[in-house]
Write a structure and sequence with these properties.
41% of the residues lie in helices and 21% in strands. It is an alpha/beta fold. It has two domains: 257 residues, Alpha-Beta Barrel (TIM Barrel), CATH 3.20.20.70; 61 residues, no CATH class. Helix 3 links the parallel strand 2 and strand 3. The two termini are 40 Å apart. 40% of the residues are buried.
């Protein structure tokens, strides 16, 4: 199977008249308005580092509301991508957009030019949360857009946020359930970050919003992650892509940002799974042999082996051995208890 790679072209805030209270697209993506004249050469340069025989190459228009940009610009970018598809140099395209910028006409335009995957910034399926955060669309519009994408034969990926003003764990679980129910093949989970020069930063400063800690962000992300895994939805990303300004904190108004939140989320998931498999078993003084997919051994052990050390102590184990087994699915475990 070929490895999937994206050639990302960022179009921050283009096509979006809304200014959600948490949003500062330039700071999120680290890019300003693109120079359309340079996009073709940017793609050409990226292709020099790819191997079509081993990689599925997708041109990805990220960072803005792609289908809401000026129609002439939209058609130019689609034609440009189609040229690379027709020449066999890339396989397909993907884009990110808003649910209210998807209709039958847009679907025909995207599909006809080789678009394969459409990511929708749904954020929440609670109309109350959407209103508080000034999203400018409803949950019903999200559902309609998702179904239009799926029914067209394109792939639907749902983007959601945790920790938004007005949200809670139950609403976030419901959002993940809805995204799965609507036919998503993939999902992104973004813990809310308080960026500078946003309305949310003003709310945090006045005390109307309390930012999550990193561990809270990981725990709430894990709730959604668990839903997606149960439904067979591929979780593409947890947490914003790291940039120098995010990592240094220069773009963060208050609260925490950690590029490790995704790793922490997955470690929490495996901690829960381990407990489910160990509960009710005679563990005292014995060894737990845990078989995991080789890619996830460190996630099972946890950050600084916290999962392993905590489980040994709480269950009275003599030891816990985590072994790689390629026959175990990436987010599954097989656990046996043996004498020490």
């Amino acid at each position: 199977m070929k490895k999937h790679i994206n050639i990302p072209i960022f179009i921050p805030h283009m096509g979006c008249p809304h200014n959600c209270i948490f949003c500062n697209q330039v700071k999120i993506s680290g890019h300003s308005r693109p120079d359309f004249g340079n996009i073709k050469s940017e793609i050409e340069n990226a292709l020099e580092t790819t191997d079509p025989e081993k990689q599925e190459i997708q041109l990805a228009y990220f960072g803005g509301s792609f289908t809401g940009i000026d129609r002439e610009d939209l058609e130019y970018l689609l034609r440009l991508g189609k040229e690379f598809i027709d020449s066999g140099r890339i396989d397909s395209m993907r884009c990110s957009t808003r649910p209210d910028y998807i209709d039958e006409d847009i679907i025909r335009l995207l599909k006809g030019n080789g678009m394969k995957t459409v990511e929708l910034g749904i954020q929440s399926c609670s109309d109350e949360v959407l209103k508080i955060n000034e999203r400018g669309h409803t949950a019903e519009q999200s559902e309609r857009a998702a179904k239009l994408i799926v029914n067209s034969g394109m792939q639907f990926v749902g983007q959601m946020m945790v920790g938004l003003p007005g949200s809670d764990e139950e609403k976030e679980i419901q959002t993940a359930e809805k995204i799965s129910e609507w036919g998503a093949v993939g999902a992104r989970i973004y813990p809310c970050i308080v960026l500078k020069n946003t309305k949310l930063s003003e709310m945090a400063e006045s005390g109307d919003y309390v930012p999550m800690t990193t561990i809270q962000a990981a725990q709430r992300s894990e709730n959604a992650f668990e839903v997606f895994i149960r439904h067979g939805v591929d979780v593409i990303r947890i947490g914003l892509q790291s940039t120098d300004s995010l990592t240094s904190g220069s773009d963060v108004a208050c609260g925490e940002y950690s590029e490790s939140v995704g790793e922490m989320c997955i470690a929490i998931y495996f901690d829960k799974l381990l407990r489910k498999q160990l509960n009710g078993k005679d563990c005292l003084g014995k060894t737990a042999c845990v078989y995991a997919n080789p890619k996830r051994i460190s996630s099972v052990a946890g950050y600084k082996k916290e999962n392993k050390n905590r489980i040994i102590k709480e269950y009275g184990l003599f030891d816990m051995k985590i072994k790689g087994d390629p026959n175990v699915e990436e987010f599954e475990l097989r656990t046996t208890i043996v004498a020490r």
